[in-house]
Design goal:
284 residues; alpha/beta; Multidrug-efflux Transporter Regulator, Chain: A, Domain 2; Rossmann fold; 3-stranded antiparallel β-sheet; 7 strands; 55% helix; globular
Length: 284
């Protein structure tokens, strides 16, 4: 069974930790255990309960009313929500539940049903990306078992590749982007999603994939001459040095703008040049 901290619940539900503590004091739907050092620990069931409560509360139900409902009543009320955003959030929450329970068949069936109804083009931004955004912090902080991660990411990767293969843009922008992940970086889903986004906007892409040596990137940049280079840093190996990586990129590609995104960029404290200094601005 997984255990979650109050910060995990905040990241997954969008409910601030302070509010969760107040709800625990006033209502009965959350009853976390505590460690020997008095730290709250939440179970799978409590996470699922909070996701349901947060969803109903966001769409007009008072907490005091939700607290009096049993599990069946809560599920019925969630199914009755007909706002488009509520439907999407419900599906994302269900995907989180299926992932935690390792019910991969139910996970894939839910995704396939949405794809059949809305198409892969809408499934990626409306369902897959919000799902990845919600659970990304859990992956980075090792609050998801590697088995859960591998099963879910492999499945989502397949859906993203299908979406990329089928995406068609109504416009054509005369720009190209080379996408890669540096050595020891294997978290490919965000890069695949950006590949989809670029192609959907009419930008040509050169997709290299994960854990690519910089010398190979240099060779292909010289050969293909992309307008931009894009990389995403989620969780690299212990020997990865961000400062050295940036320095190597600057030396290897002095004339090609490089875009870096991802969780690790939040830890970079040095100032970077503002976008306005670029001589080759990225099309919107």
């Amino acid at each position: 069974m997984n255990s979650f901290t109050i910060k995990d619940l905040e990241n997954l539900s969008g409910i601030k930790a302070h509010t969760i503590r107040i709800w625990e004091q006033r209502y009965s739907f959350l009853k976390p255990n505590r460690t020997g050092t008095n730290i709250r620990v939440y179970s799978n069931d409590e996470l699922k309960t909070l996701l349901n409560v947060a969803l109903l509360n966001k769409y007009g139900f008072k907490i005091s009313r939700i607290d009096k409902m049993n599990e069946s009543e809560i599920n019925d009320k969630i199914l009755s929500l007909n706002q488009q955003e509520a439907l999407q959030e419900r599906i994302v929450n269900m995907l989180i539940k299926h992932m935690i329970e390792l019910d991969i068949e139910a996970f894939e069936e839910l995704l396939n049903d949405f794809i059949a109804t809305k198409g892969i083009e809408k499934t990626i931004p409306q369902i897959i990306f919000p799902f990845l955004e919600k659970i990304g912090i859990l992956w980075l902080t090792n609050h998801i078992n590697p088995g859960q991660e591998h099963l879910v990411t492999t499945l989502i990767r397949q859906k993203l590749i299908v979406g990329i293969d089928h995406v068609r843009s109504t416009v054509k922008i005369d720009k190209s982007v080379l996408l890669f992940l540096p050595e020891t970086e294997y978290h490919e889903l965000s890069l695949l999603f950006m590949n989809y986004m670029f192609k959907s906007k009419g930008v040509s892409t050169i997709y290299l994939g994960c854990s690519i040596p910089l010398r190979d990137v240099e060779y292909l940049v010289k050969l293909k001459k992309p307008d931009y280079i894009y990389t995403h840093l989620t969780s690299v190996g212990p020997r990865f040095n961000f400062e050295r990586f940036i320095d190597n990129l600057s030396k290897s590609f002095p004339k090609t703008p490089v875009i870096i995104s991802g969780y690790l960029t939040n830890t970079y404290e040095k100032k970077v040049l503002p976008p306005s200094t670029s001589k080759n601005p990225m099309p919107k």
